[in-house]
């Protein structure tokens, strides 16, 4: 037995050197221990223990050699002595230890999990792009180079270790010996310091079947792990695949040896056969485990398979009953149940893997989803009888998981589906699945129509906050359901309230209405209903509605009253809030309508939809205004065409941002300001500069675009400027064109703004158009496309200027429902 350390882990064997009294640990030993006789005795005991371990290792190695000789006897058709001689000659020719060569011979013959692990090592070693640390995976770094075998020596060392561990495991009497063999021969070269073999119980509990590298006290402390305790071993049991923990402390899971190696890593591997996990192999490292790689995966899975063989064949302390007796006991258990029960036996592939479950027995309470008799189901495979159980997350997956892990499954409501003439038929059932030995017990209780309707009614009453009652007027007995007690705020053990006592429970203001309700029900024997306020014992007032009807005998005498209460408090307060909201909305709508009316009247007073033509100094001018279709979209578009005292003609259009009363008042300010400024005789650029100061300083954050022109009749010259507005359109000789985008930012945006001027001399029969964006703008296109369409429309031949403006309004395809202003001037042709 190896000496144990205070940390719960056994200390590794000491080097083979004599223990002298003056050795490194002598000063820490008591005087009695430092005596020469005692020291020699301790050294002798240690040497004998080491010899025993060496002898055990040699015995395990001899087992591998003997098995390899048996393979050679079968292949070479020779005797044992000749096979031993051939094995020795082959090892000498290959320059390799006989044990490694024997392991490779067994691998070629066995083709089992150990062979797979060795082949995986060979593939990785032969692949130059593989893991650079592959040569050190088996603890034999530096052994492979120089032998010319492409990594074969390293793979041989892996195979020798694994086969030696296998030999020791097969010869072991219990899982404890298996754990010691695995740690000694296979895991210590990987850097592991301890190993635990867990046996999984039928209830998914874990029992420590064997361990190595831990102290006896630590093993005794972790002898049994109850179901439901989260540990690294349980993680592998539940996930049914290897789980790697870089640090047990960071994982936060308790396990054996946790105090000795708080920062150490763990690898837990499920050990099972035929789809059933019967145990877990847990490997402990003092630090981070070996890097997860295909080689390590293969090796630890091969070791877990060795553990599974031992756990499957080793008897329990009480001695397991025969498989037949276990099945018979499970059948007796199923027959004693009041629900439909199935005894399922695993059905395996030829290679031993789980394929399906055979329905071995069903009890006499069996009810099939498709209405088939018991004889049609017994003996069939589960997926043959219920093929739709193979759906993801379906019944078969649940049964397979319970069989693998032993963890029972329960579901109050689970959807089951069967095929009837290729038509899926679904049913809801309460399902219970548990493992018993190697079999699985499946129990289901189909939900019948009455139970389903009762459940539906219960949930409807709960969701609708409805409580039912019945009062027997002959016996005085009153029956309430649980929901009605909750509505009244009473305990379920309290006495129900009789109908005659209802007025005392209600708000005083509701007593007259309750009196009429009771007279109609009790004296006139007619159904009745009422809404009232209930004063509960806890001081809460609830708004309830009660609907009741009388129960009469053949002679018309009143026997009972039955009905239902419904909590309508939420509905009542919703109606109150809705009424308040309606009142507020009506008031808001009235204010908005009044504001829109004022804005519309203001706009129409200042800018009528049309004005007759203006004729001055040989120039004809006309205007058109089209308001928005909706009153609440009253905008700030404006126009002006007026003859100034100087004889010049002021032409302008503008568009104030926004809608409603603010836009309308802003339009009035800018239009009137521009009229007053134009009387100074300044040019259009200067006028827009002053108008920008008005918009920026003398209005309430008004912004606008504008186009301003001054026509001089003597020279037929038009000077114009723009403030972020669309330029004018000139129609000459039947061709329409835009005058271009000269510099000028919108009004009110900045305190200072510069506005360039454009100059054009009108020729006889020229027409100039000024407009706002409501004439051309569309939501689904660019402004340039809209301007192109305007030019095409302006070129259409018409009789006079008024007809041209009407034509532009009529054929406008704008869709923004905005105001539109057009100002047009026409210079008649020379007589």
What would you note in describing this structure?
- With 831 residues, this protein is α+β, with helices and mostly antiparallel strands.
- It folds into 4 domains: 58-313, GAF domain (Beta-Lactamase, 2-Layer Sandwich), CATH 3.30.450; 323-447, 2-Layer Sandwich (Beta-Lactamase); 453-567, 2-Layer Sandwich (Beta-Lactamase), CATH 3.30.450; 604-826, Phosphatase 2c, domain 1 (4-Layer Sandwich).
- The chain is 38% helix and 24% strand.
- It has 22 helices and 27 strands.
- The strands form 5 sheets. A 6-stranded antiparallel sheet has the order 3-2-1-6-5-4. Strands 17-18-27-26-23-24 form a 6-stranded antiparallel sheet, with helices on one face.
- Strand 23 (729-732) and strand 24 form a beta hairpin.
- Helix 1 (36-76) crosses helix 3 (98-110) and helix 18 packs parallel to helix 19 (661-678).
- The longest helix is centred in the first third of the chain and has 41 residues, at 36-76.
- The N and C termini lie far apart (134 Å).
- Mean pLDDT is 78; it is low at 13-34, 120-153 and 315-323.
- Residues 1-38, 123-155 are annotated as: Disordered.
- Residues 528-580 form the PAC domain.
- It comes from Actinomadura fibrosa.
